[in-house]
Every structure is written in C-alpha cells, then in structure tokens.
Amino acid sequence: MGTLLYPPYLQWEVVSDCNHKCIHCYNYWRADGMSVETCAKFDEITTQIIERKPLYLAITGGEPMLVFSHIQPCISRMRAAGITVSISTNGTLITEEIARYLSENHIDLVISLPSIDRKICDSVCCAENVVGKLEKVFPLLKENHISTTINVVINKLNISTLYDTLKAINGWGFVARVGMAQRPINASSEYLKYELDKADFKNIVRQTLNAKRDFRMDVDFSVCIPDCAFGSEDGVEEIQKGDCFAGTIAYAIDTAGNVKACQCDTRTYGNILTDSFEEIYKNMSEWRNGSLIPDECKKCNKVRSCRGGCRVESYANTGDYKSLPTFADLKNVPVAAAKNAEILDFSDDAEFSLEPKTVFLKDKECYRVSVGFVATHLSNDFARWLMENHSFKFDDLQKATPAPRAQLLAVLKMLLNNGIIHIQK
Hints:
The protein is of the alpha/beta class. It has helices spanning 42-51, 68-80, 96-104, 118-125, 130-143, 162-172, 189-193, 198-215, 277-283, 303-306, 311-318, 380-388, 394-400, 405-417; strands spanning 9-13, 56-60, 84-89, 108-112, 148-154, 175-180, 219-221, 250-253, 259-260, 351-354, 359-362, 367-371, 374-378, 391-393, 421-423.
C-alpha cells in the first residue's frame, strides 16, 4: 500500500481560537508567540475533503462552535456526500438551534470535561463555570438524541477526581473516554507543572477499572498508550486503548489547508488546496516505513499495532520522534499483559457471506473495503474475488489463493471483526 488516495479517516481543524485555554491542550499555538487563526477557505477545503472520499471526518479546533455558522453548510455538504461527521468541542457554546441541527444531520459529539469538581475543572480549562454551563447543555443533547462521548483528559491537577467524574458521566447517560495529558509541542510552563509520570498512569488505570466495574459503564482510553506501559495489572485486559493511524489511514488538515500526519504535530507535508494528495501522502512515508519507531521497540511482539506509542509526544519530550514516550516501560517487553489474540479456525465447508452494505472503492494500488465508517484495505485480486463471490466456503477461498492457511484465517478474522463478512455456518 505505497500510495493511498482515499484514506478513510481525517481531522479538520477549522479554527485555532477557543473560549477555553486548557493547560493540557495539544494545540501548540497556545504557547507564547503562536498566532491564532481561523480557517478562511471553508468551502474550498470542504471540496477537497469530499474529493478524498473519507468515511469519517472529525472536526476539531480550537473551539468549532465559535465558527459554527461557517462550518454548518460545509457539514451539510459532507453529510450529503455520505461522510460521517463528529465534532470535538468543549460543549459550552451549544444552543438549542445547534443541537437541533446536529440531531437532524446525525452529527456525533466528543465533549471535553476534565473534572466534575467545579473549581478544578475551571482551573484546568482556565475558564469560569464550565460544569454549570455543561449541565444546561447536556439536557439538550439527551432531548435531541445526539450521540455524545465525554473525554476526560487527566493531568496532576485533576487526577484525584477521575473516579467521581466518570461516576457523574455515567449518571448523565453518556459514553466516557479517558485521556492522559501528553506533552504538547512548545508546552507552556503551566502544563509542565502538572505533567503526568508513570505512577500517575497506574493510578489512572486503577480508577478507570474501578469505575468500569462499579458502574458497568462504557469507558476506555482515548489516547495512544504503548502496550508495555500496562505491565501485569489485574484486569488490564478490560480496557481498550486508543490506536494511532497517523500518516497511514488517517491525516489532519489545519486552518490553512496544510496536511499533517497527526493533528498534534507541527510538521506539514503539503497543502490540500495546492498540492496533489498523492504527493502529500508520499511525503508522509516516514510514518509508514518504521523509521519513527524507537529502536528499543523494534523487537517487541506488539510493535506492529503499538508503533511505539505516540511519536509526537516523544518529540515534544526529547526533540526526537524515535525516542520512547513517557509511559513506556521496557521491563514489560515482550508484552505479556496485552490481550491474547483470539485464535480462529474453520472447517473446509464453513460458509461465509458478504455484508450487503459493503462498499468497494478502488484506490491506486488496492481497494478500500468498508461497512459504515469501518474500513480495511485489500489487494486488488482478493477484493475482486470477494465482489464476485458474495457467498463462499473456506475451501473456495483456499483454492482461489496460494496464501498459507494461517494467513487466510487472519484475513477472515479481520473481515469478520470489521463486519465485512458473516459466518453462515
């Protein structure tokens, strides 16, 4: 997969201004001397996004609600093109009118709430009455049936309130995700005072597991944590951690149309308004060829999925993208605490069927195959075979390809997990 013309996932930073100034925010422009910008070419960037045919777009900022009148027609165009859209927001500026529009257009929300403790929350956000404002917004979201996830980003200032915050989110009836504040590029001195360490990470794991068990709630991690950080804590298999797809099947666009592998990074690889995406994607090859993975990680049994943890955080800490991230713990390598891969096997007469809603999109060197906004990439030959064989037996697949049985089983597992095929018997 040397070139990908249609990556399925992207993020768009529509404004870098915000009504909050959260001390943990990854937006490096908050440091002294960085400028605040608002996207000036909403329509042009929207056109380019639609041409890239993403399945899922996350609109970010800054605070997107500050420019909602500008992005509303853009969202309508993207929804008409079949793109699933979510908005990352602090939520405090949502009105009844905005809530109705989000509901009518099936827009998901990710709302940041650092703490249920009002004083601590205001200190983290550098704003006033954040919890009080959200308590007025949340009923609007429930009344309009807006799919909402609350993201709780933790630093030393609010770590003691994590359990109570998750309890409150559960009471509101929302999904929760937990993020660990990771050092932004050009981090402010205020951020550094509350930076997390490995002991804090263990505390976060413990509180998250307790909330997950006590309230039977849907809560996992929203950030890319190295597998070796988890050690051998009991119950760690209960937590899903965020994955990083930066520069592989996902990319980010900033307010000026510059394209980055990751929204948290400062490096750009071209501009979506002036450069071909084929060239931009080629320029991102370091994110796919392993050259950014720490040397210490290359023999780990989880390196292909973990990728050494967050590369941008590593750069922010040391000035080197190849360095280990904060929570990495080499004594746990090879990783023993990670979930064991489920082993699947099938008899030769096991029958499968293709999900009728599967969409095949021809990319330059492969096919993007998707159901909803869940996507995978298949070779041209295998994708065409699937298009011609909506129902098949395992023996049919073995006869159609010279691949080893173990490889075919892995592919079938991936297709089953992504909802692209189903087991008939």
